[in-house]
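We close this part of the discussion by returning to an individual protein. The encoding preserves chain order, so positions in sequence and tokens coincide. The sequence in question and its structure tokens are set out directly beneath this paragraph:

===
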Amino acid sequence: MTAPVTLDRRHGPHGEVVLRRRDAAVPVYEIIANGCFLMDTSDGRSERLLVDAAWLALDPPPVNASVLIGGLGVGFSLVHAAAQAHWGRIVVAEREQAIIDWHRSGPLRAVTEAALADSRVTILHTDLVTHLHASPDRYDALCLDIDNGPDWTVTEDNQNLYSPAGLAACRARLTPGGVLAVWSAQPSAAFEKAMRNAGFSSVRTEEVPVARGVPDVVHLGRNPL
């Protein structure tokens, strides 16, 4: 690949967010937040697994299930959910207006244009933690991918999501039997313990295979019936 080219740079209440492109056989787009690499379009396995793992953990699977995706990112989780008929309502919470703009009218439109046109999809410009605490809505699944995981947050206030109060807010937004799925760049035994302490059942960690290094993971837990 060539050196990255900066396509857009925005400064907002949560710091700096940058969209870059690396030219290859297929261009790769990267999102950088406060100087920290978040994700790119080179491989969407972990984003797809996040959605699939949440669905497979629903037992029994509800009809017209609803899912809240925390973080729009490069759009792979949204696109994957929109391609599946069993999701009857798909809500995405994204706090960075820049990222929403890159999908609606910028370079990432090619990734998510069809999904954004799906009548089941709603994009909310809101902070995820604020939405969890303030919204009366309940979902069958929460698929959260807002930074690099419980032990490596991009901004300090993201730690609120993984706190006891944040996990309690997640449970409050889940239907009985609903599933919380949290993506992480590395396994976190401490977060598994925090999920159990918050009242989640069937807590487990599913690994995402990678070529080398520590695997990405999805932490899963159910809201008891």
Summary: Residues 93 and 124 are 5 Å apart (CA to CA). The radius of gyration is 17 Å. Residues 45-57 form the longest helix (13 residues).
